[in-house]
Amino acid sequence: MIIGTVKERKQQEFSVGITPDNVRTYVSKGHTVLVETGAGDGSGFSDQEYVAAGAQITAAAEEVYRDAGMIVKVKEPMPSEFSLLRRGQILFTYLHLAADRVVTEALLAAGTTAVAYETIRDAAGALPLLKPMSEIAGRLSIQEGAKYLEKPYGGRGVLLAGVPGVPKAKIVILGGGVVGTNACKIAAGFGADVTIIDVNLDRLAYLDDIFGSRIQTLCSTDATIERECRKADLVIGAVLIPGGAAPKLVKRGYLQDMKPGSVIVDVAVDQGGCCETSRPTYHDDPTFTVDGVVHYCVGNMPGAVPRTSTIALTNATINYGLAMAGGLESAVAKLPGLKPGINCLDGKLTCPEVGAAFGIPVAAV
Would you state the CATH architecture of domain 2-112+306-358? Predict the structure, then answer.
């Protein structure tokens, strides 16, 4: 198969879908790899490295889309790429379609077979291709939250760890999955006052065993979330419904009772956000303020650390890419968890969560 990767068109996204090491792997299996010139620059991979690994460099994305049987990317296609999508081609990338009807309709109109990283399952039912970005986003959420709590950035002027004789920052994490656990790890490491909220009592017990007395675990209810947000200096939105839109846990009315200059980092914004006042932002203008509360809502947070993100992501995606390069049907037989990753197939929507979000009929894979 001819496999291609292109420079990401999403604003402020510097990661790339295939590394030179991936190229060597694909080529060793008899495949051809096309790389748009400059695709790896943002992650520190030069065209020369790709060529040395066996890739062919193309002058434009149009050539890659035209010739490749599978496109491996990082983020969903942008409007400038819609006309390049075509039937008979696999698009392998993060899609988050439940939060984006425009991209959904573009994929269906093009007849592209779209395989979403974020809905592929492993044998245990976990999300192996979402995990590396969730780990990074969770850790970054505390790093970014700490920065925007600083007064020059509009925050309360609070240090996460405090100092002797001064209260620590109060951090509330909504969701105890991969994002929430990694946020908790960094927040507890800073020595902050950390509360993590989840609906799953078994998950809360697990987190309590890991972190012990360094954190407080609470069962999620509307009243609990409202009360804890009122006390928080920093709120991390880390909830996830695989393939579906994020639930709106932080209501607009809660903000009026939150501390002026407190910060919300809504990691779930790529799935629509878990705060009613969230809207997507970008790394070059990442925040806005509503009712005195600073919102950080960058939809591609890991793009800020593209070298780390690219290597972590491609470590996880390469085996799935190799399997699909041998044919989608045989790949699903070999890796059954790939099947729920197929969101669109030959012009038909195949992801139930996206169908439910937009009222679009769903076909079986």
Answer: 3-Layer(aba) Sandwich (3.40)
CATH topology agreement for domains 2-112+306-358 and 133-303: yes
Give the position of tokens 């993590």.
Answer: 196
pLDDT band at 245 (very low <50, low <70, confident <90, very high): confident
Apex 267 CA angle, 265 and 272, nearest 5: 110
- Computed over every residue of the chain, the mean pLDDT equals 96
What's the rounded mean pLDDT across residues 224-234? 98
The identity of residue 362, as a single letter, is V
Q: Annotated catalytic sites, by residue?
A: 96, 270
What does the alpha-carbon distance between residue 197 and residue 175 come to, in Å, rounded to a whole number? 6
Written as six digits, the tokens of 140 are: 């970054």
The pLDDT tens digits for 267-308 are: 999 899 999 999 999 999 999 999 999 999 999 999 999 999
Query: H helices within the chain, ranges in order?
Result: 20-28, 47-53, 61-67, 79-82, 101-110, 131-148, 178-190, 201-211, 222-231, 306-325, 328-334, 352-358
Q: Where are the domains of the chain?
A: 2-112+306-358, 133-303
